[in-house]
Amino acid sequence: MKRFKIWASITIAVSMVIFISSCNNGEDKKVDTAAAETTAAKPAETKMDAAPAARPANFTTMTIKVANYAKWLPAYEGDDSARTVNGLSNYVLGRGLGKDSNTVLVALKMADAAKAKAFANSPALKEKMKKGGVMGAPLSVNFVETVMQDTSANASTRVIMTHKVKDWAVWKKEFDSHKQMRMDAGLADRVVGHSVDDTHMVTLVFAINDMAKAKAFMASKDLKDKMAAAGVEGPPTVFYYTVAKKY
């Protein structure tokens, strides 16, 4: 009888262990299933690549002499569709300072240099310019690949300078090293670039925060020496103007 009771007790104990273990396994399966469902329901994280920095727009600039700015402006703006067809869009109009107020700098954003050149040399444009009051041939025409452009707010009085250099990389290194010198002279870099066809032809635009300092600096022997050391060949072409209109 005792033996029977002992075996009965052992049998009950084993049964309880088996029952408890099976319950635990069921719970573990439930947890694993829930975790799997949660993982499946959670959308995969998509890694967004940083947007590439927008490169500066390339430009064409043309400096012209007009008989009367007020009469020329409507004629210029009325020909906007012809510029658009040729990959050009209005950007800035500048007027020369003082007695040069009828000398105009036209700056256009350029999407296609080949089209822009063909348009600039077309008989149709020359005829329209003549009718609009442009006097003679343009004083300068540049097709510029922009390397640096600063569009932050700054003084509306500007100077555009073009010159030839022996080597773009050598010149650019020297130019960059003298930025503080330009700032001390009241000049802020706005555009740095070179011809789309020739890296030896450099175009620069500066905002002028102090005209007296800027003109003294531009005429200084120190600047001439630094330009010579940077490989600038010949005297630069310089035009002072104020921004008359932005588009």
Uncertain runs: 1-43
Task: Provide the spatial order of strands within the biggest beta sheet.
Answer: 1-3-2-8-5-7-6-4
> DSSP helix count?
9
Give the class from helix and strand content and strand pairing.
alpha+beta
How many β-strand runs?
8
Work out the count of structural domains: 1
Question: Mind summarizing the main beta sheet?
Answer: 8 strands, antiparallel, barrel
Question: End-to-end distance, in Å?
Answer: 109 Å
Strand content: 25-35%
In the CATH scheme, what's the topology name? Alpha-Beta Plaits
Helix fraction, binned, reads 40-55%
Q: What number is the mean pLDDT?
A: 85
Tell me which CATH architecture applies here.
2-Layer Sandwich
Radius of gyration: 36 Å
Tell me the name of the CATH class: Alpha Beta
Provide the succession of SSEs.
Answer: HEHHEEHHEEHHEEHHE
**Oligomer designation:** single chain
Task: Please write out the topology.
Layout: H1 2-41, E1 59-65, H2 69-77, H3 80-85, E2 88-96, E3 103-110, H4 113-120, H5 123-131, E4 140-149, E5 157-165, H6 168-177, H7 179-184, E6 187-195, E7 201-208, H8 211-218, H9 221-230, E8 232-246
Antiparallel strand pairs: 1-3, 1-4, 2-3, 2-8, 4-6, 5-7, 5-8, 6-7
Helix pairs in contact: 6-9
Short note summarizing the structure:
The protein has 9 helices and 8 strands.
Notes on the structure:
By secondary structure, the chain is an alpha+beta fold. It has one domain: Alpha-Beta Plaits (2-Layer Sandwich), CATH 3.30.70. It contains 9 helices and 8 strands. Strands 1-3-2-8-5-7-6-4 form an 8-stranded antiparallel barrel. Strand 2 and strand 3 form a beta hairpin. Helix 6 (168-177) runs antiparallel to helix 9. The longest helix is centred in the first third of the chain and has 40 residues, at 2-41. The N and C termini lie far apart (109 Å). Mean pLDDT is 85; it is low at 1-43.
